[in-house]
Amino acid sequence: MKHTRARLFTLVTLAGMLVHPAATQALEFPNAPERQTSRSSVGGARRGGPSPQIAFGGRYNPGACSAESELPEVLMPRDRIQTKASLSPSWIALIPASNRAERVEIELVDQESNLTLQTASFELPQSSGLVEFLLPELSTEQSDKVYRWQLTLECTVAGRQRSESIWGKIELSDLTPQQAAELNNLRTPRAQAEFYANNGFWNEAVAAMLTARANHPQDWADLLASVGITQPDMIEAPLAGTVQAEQAQSVLHRLFPALTMSR
């Protein structure tokens, strides 16, 4: 009788698992290793105390082209270092409704040589929301390096040219042959986002999950929350569009220490 009850219990348990499958593990980006943060991030504090969003990037002149209560943001991990599985730099930024800028300039600087590799100008979409910025692909010898970047919004207020900037770092590398083979077998954006997140590639994880968030809103929220992004305006912002550089110049010049892009 005991054995019969035990078998019955096992069958009921298995049936329950089929009816109520185990919950999918939350989509999270792994904790980044401790890295030294830039002193310039302190300069991004708002009046009245440090900005609650300072973890997402250093700032210069916040509120010059937007309301101080609704600043533009770049989606990035807490240590402000993005990671990308290709040599094509990209950023996803929240451009708020209060934004007065019509153009954005992005500068990419080699962390080791302190030389500017690219500067690019972008025209912003008409609508506010999440905007993906794409720069031209770098050469293969520039792989596996950390680059500093600065995203500057340019506007005209009361007849005067003004600008505000966000900056951080991005590491560009290539997938290994094994990673490329594994990725090739993944057919859905949700599965690809999980692959990129598990392998530490932030930019592709966010881009893939952004295309799948309509069907997986909780996974999108979980991915952002895993790096500290919990503001509803960032999680729920619509995709305003993807923009490519109107002008992309390869520039090799030494940056002056007075510029806002500190090492």
Structure summary:
It contains 6 helices and 11 strands. It has 263 residues and is α+β, with helices and mostly antiparallel strands.
Task: State the helicity in percent bands.
Answer: 10-25%
Q: Please, how many helices?
A: 6
The arrangement of helices and strands along the chain is HEEEEEEEEEHHHHHEE
Count of β-strands: 11
End-to-end CA span: 74 Å
Q: Beta-sheet strand percentage?
A: 25-35%
Largest sheet, strands/sense/barrel = 7 strands, mixed
**Oligomerization state:** single chain
Radius of gyration: 22 Å
Shape descriptor reads globular
Molecular structure report:
Helix 4 packs antiparallel against helix 5. The N and C termini lie far apart (74 Å). With 263 residues, this protein is an alpha+beta fold. Strand 5 and strand 6 form a beta hairpin. Strands 1, 3, 5, 6, 8, 9 and 11 form a 7-stranded mixed β-sheet that branches. Strands 2-4-7-10 form a 4-stranded mixed β-sheet, covered by helices on one side. It contains 6 helices and 11 strands. The C terminus is likely disordered. The longest helix has 18 residues.
Helix and strand topology:
Blueprint: H1 2-19, E1 58-60, E2 73-74, E3 81-84, E4 90-95, E5 103-110, E6 116-123, E7 129-134, E8 145-157, E9 160-172, H2 177-184, H3 189-198, H4 202-212, H5 217-225, H6 232-235, E10 239-244, E11 247-249
Parallel strand pairs: 3-9, 7-10
Antiparallel strand pairs: 1-9, 2-4, 4-7, 5-6, 5-8, 6-11, 8-9
Features:
6 helices, seven-stranded mixed beta sheet, four-stranded mixed beta sheet, single chain, disordered C terminus, 27% strand, 263 residues, alpha+beta
